[in-house]
Amino acid sequence: MGEALRQALRAYDAEEVPVGAVMVRNGRIIARASNQVETLKDATAHAEMLVITQAEAAVGDWRLNDCTLYVTKEPCPMCAGAIVHVRLARVVYGASDLKGGAAGSALNLLQFDGLNHKSEITRGVREEECRSLLQTFFNEQRAKNKLKKSSTDSTLN
């Protein structure tokens, strides 16, 4: 999770939602990524999606059934769908997402009975660090937006 947090800090520095992910196979990191939605202008450029693509290339197969994903925030439905599709053995995440998390918080696609695969889930690893980074980022974004709105309002008067 330490390397996933380092990746999240890279996203934070790039003014992206600070989520980082790493893929581990046989005890070794084979892929790492951070959110790049704004940078790439691509709504699918979540850290999990990017790290899955890198891991597939590293393994030489789309099946990642012997890999573990470490991610700083609970995967969303899009990412959870990809995780099930590539048959990840395990997902380890830090901060839960009560509104949109798809690994047990809002819904659980990773262990949904109707799907062809279920991933093991480990929740809350270094949770406070992961949550704090996200909260700081969103508080800063709200402050920037408030300042921008205030500036625009004073220009209009």
Short description:
By secondary structure, the chain is an alpha/beta fold. Helix content is 43%, strand content 18%. It has helices at 2-13, 37-40, 47-59, 77-85, 127-156, and strands spanning 20-25, 28-34, 67-73, 90-95, 120-122.
Structure explained in plain terms:
- The chain has helices at residues 2-13, 37-40, 47-59, 77-85, 127-156, and strands at 20-25, 28-34, 67-73, 90-95, 120-122.
- The mean pLDDT is 95.
- The chain is globular.
- Strands 2-1-3-4-5 form a 5-stranded mixed β-sheet.
- It contains 5 helices and 5 strands, in the order αββααβαββα.
- The protein is of the alpha/beta class and 157 residues long.
* Average pLDDT figure: 95
What overall form do the CA principal axes indicate? globular
Task: For the record, give the distance between the C-alpha atoms at the N and C termini, rounded to a whole number.
Answer: 49 Å
The major beta sheet can be summarized as: 5 strands, mixed
Secondary structure topology:
Layout: H1 2-13, E1 20-25, E2 28-34, H2 37-40, H3 47-59, E3 67-73, H4 77-85, E4 90-95, E5 120-122, H5 127-156
Parallel strand pairs: 3-4, 4-5
Antiparallel strand pairs: 1-2, 1-3
Helix pairs in contact: 1-5
Which properties best describe this structure?
about 160 residues, alpha/beta, five-stranded mixed beta sheet, 5 helices, about 20% strand
